[in-house]
UniProtKB/TrEMBL annotation:
Entry keyword annotation includes Transport: yes
SMART domains: AAA
Keywords annotated in UniProt: ATP-binding, Nucleotide-binding, Transport
Keyword Nucleotide-binding (UniProt): yes
Pfam family, one: ABC_tran
Stretches assigned to the ABC transporter domain: 5-228
PANTHER family assigned: ATP-BINDING COMPONENT OF ABC TRANSPORTER-RELATED (PTHR24220:SF611), IMPORT ATP-BINDING PROTEIN (PTHR24220)
Name recorded for this polypeptide: ABC transporter ATP-binding protein
Gene Ontology CC entries for this record: plasma membrane
Provenance organism: Marinobacterium marinum
GO molecular function, one term: ATP binding
Length: 229
């Protein structure tokens, strides 16, 4: 079976500092969910940047969906990321002047593979965006009438989740995706995200400080003084 993520002898240090990341082996199979935790400064964001191919200068190998990222040119790596990774970050990175559907369909403008999958899923990319937004319980009257800058934080978070999911990328990477939500909204959001992931079969990597979320994941990676897989 091809692993969706394989880290081997991964080591990364900032200049003049001891290693912040030291991982012998980590494998994630299709559909697996991994929770990454650790104190502030333990390297969680650095690790995500290594996995997305945004941070160069490491030792070891990062292989996503069978491709070793360091062997790709920087341009090919950008395209690979667009094709295979859905990113759901704390600050959402939505384009504030675009409406909800146009934000959700953005990955499909960068990736023919995701455009094809999204079209196959619902008949058209726009319809798949609307299905995901509906699934994440955003009201249809907002889809085209509102710019995302005019949404609440919780609504923006759900638009960002729909954008990460569209076109069923192999790997969803989420960094503190529920940090702005109260407990009830968090539980509801995670439930919807898990249901959608079950259908898409995507693998999930999530960083969070929230112990209530940790309990919902079968696998954990603890970063810090002693890294435990
Ligand atoms: N550009 C950089 N140059 C030098 N050191 C950096 C840089 N970015 C991060 N670091 C250091 O690397 C370590 C890990 O940082 P990182 O942001 O990955 O931690 P984190 O676990 O995500 O923290 P938090 O939970 O606070 O977001 C920290 O000691 C940080 O100071």
């Amino acid at each position: 079976m091809t692993h969706i993520l394989h880290l081997k002898n991964l080591q990364f240090s900032w200049p003049g500092q001891p290693p912040v990341i030291e991982l012998d082996q980590l494998h994630l199979a299709p559909g697996e969910h991994l929770f990454i935790q650790g104190p502030s400064g333990s390297g969680k964001t650095t690790l995500l940047n290594l996995i997305t191919g945004l941070q160069p200068g490491y030792h070891g190998a990062v292989t996503v969906a069978g491709r070793e990222l360091a062997r790709l040119s920087s341009r090919a790596r950008d395209q690979f990321r667009a094709d295979h990774m859905g990113l759901l970050f704390q600050q959402f990175n939505l384009l504030p002047y675009l409406n909800l559907v146009d934000n959700v369909t953005l990955p499909c403008t960068l990736s023919a593979a995701r455009r094809t999958t999204a079209s196959q899923d619902s008949g058209s990319v726009d319809r798949e965006a609307e299905r995901l937004l509906t699934r994440l319980q955003l009201p249809p009257q907002l889809f085209r009438q509102r710019r995302t800058a005019e949404l609440s934080i919780g609504q923006q978070q759900r638009v960002a989740a729909a954008r990460a999911l569209i076109g069923r990328p192999a790997l969803i990477i989420a960094d503190e995706p529920t940090s702005a939500l109260d407990h009830a909204s968090r539980d509801h959001f995670i439930q919807l995200l898990f249901e959608e992931l079950e259908q898409s079969g995507s693998t999930l990597l999530m960083v969070s400080h929230d112990p209530a979320l940790a309990a919902r994941f079968p696998r954990h990676l603890q970063l810090g003084a002693a890294t435990i897989c």
